[in-house]
Specification:
This protein has 154 residues and is α+β, with helices and mostly antiparallel strands. Helix content is 18%, strand content 45%.
């Protein structure tokens, strides 16, 4: 009787481990493929400029630290104060096309109005220009963050 119980237990373990192995192989095939873009990375906001309808430029003070993390068609933006406390954050989907980026806050793309901005990469900086409803525009300049968590310098 003891051998029958041991054989039954061993058989059950083999069947279960085979099922788990099969499930693991199946779930690997269902992963979403990675979608990288030239914008992937961690970016720190270094400059914000407001341009009114007549073309007058005003530099906006940036006393808070803003980081934008872009990876695999997603983004998140985190704004912290001088003491490192999180003041605001947003995350969502990112569509990058030739010269235009669409940021959808949240994960329900069909229900969201995207933030549209024209983007340009030059000298390790990402410049985003957004046209506001007032006819003014906002220009954000982001610097790629280095491994020591500071903005890279030229």
């Amino acid at each position: 009787m003891r051998n029958l119980y041991s054989s039954l237990l061993l058989g059950t373990l083999l069947i279960c481990s085979g099922m788990f192995y099969g499930l693991a192989l199946t779930s690997n095939n269902k992963r979403f493929p990675a979608h990288s873009s030239v914008l992937d990375g961690t970016w720190q906001l270094v400059e914000v400029t407001h341009v009114n309808a007549t073309g007058q430029r005003t530099s906006l003070s940036n006393r808070w630290r803003s980081l934008k993390i872009i990876a695999n068609r997603h983004y998140s933006t985190i704004i912290t104060d001088e003491n490192g406390r999180v003041m605001s954050s947003v995350a969502g989907l990112l569509e990058v096309q030739s010269g235009v980026a669409y940021e959808y806050a949240g994960m329900l793309v069909k229900q969201m109005v995207p933030r549209r901005s024209e983007w340009q990469l030059a000298d390790g900086r990402l410049t985003q220009r957004e046209q506001l409803a007032t006819g003014d525009s906002r220009i954000e300049v982001w610097q790629l963050v280095g491994p020591d968590n500071s903005a890279a310098t030229d």
